[in-house]
Prior knowledge:
Order of helices and strands: EHHEHEHEHEHEH
Shape: globular
CATH class: Alpha Beta
CATH superfamily: HAD superfamily/HAD-like
CATH architecture: 3-Layer(aba) Sandwich
Low-confidence stretches: 159-164
Oligomer: single chain
Largest sheet: 6 strands, parallel
Distance between the termini: 9 Å
Number of strands: 6
CATH topology: Rossmann fold
Mean pLDDT: 88
Strand content: 5-15%
Number of helices: 7
Helix content: 25-40%
Number of domains: 1
Amino acid sequence: MPKPRIGVDVDGVLAPGRFIPEEMRTIEVYQALPPIAEAEVLQDMARIADVYVLTARGMASDDLQAWIYKHYALSLPCFTEMYGAKKAMFARLLELDVLFDDSPKVLENLDEECVGVLVANDHWPENAEARQHGDFEHVVEDLEEALEWLEEWKDGGKVRLEGI
């Protein structure tokens, strides 16, 4: 059986998801952000799935790959400047099975082939509101819970390429 293909957002999923004023959005500021989870969590995800990083951050993919390698000891394909519908379009192009994101708007734009999983982010009012109203079937609190969800989902055999 092929490994599932998953997408993971950065801010609010791999790194703290707080608002950074536009004038402060520099490589130095982004590179100084700590990871949210222990490295083993993302490493475990990468063992059971092909992981792609999709972020709205306006930075070079190489800089983001360096940050991921520094904090998670992984070399993953990264796609930057993925805003809203553009991120959903890339999820289709990459044939993702699952996307973990803290943006309700991004997840609402996904096609039915990709399962959207909302990652909790109390720094973002739209996220808290969507969780409070139960707008999403799949919600996790953090990356550790995302890994648990992925393991259960994968065991259910729900991979896009199943049967090929």
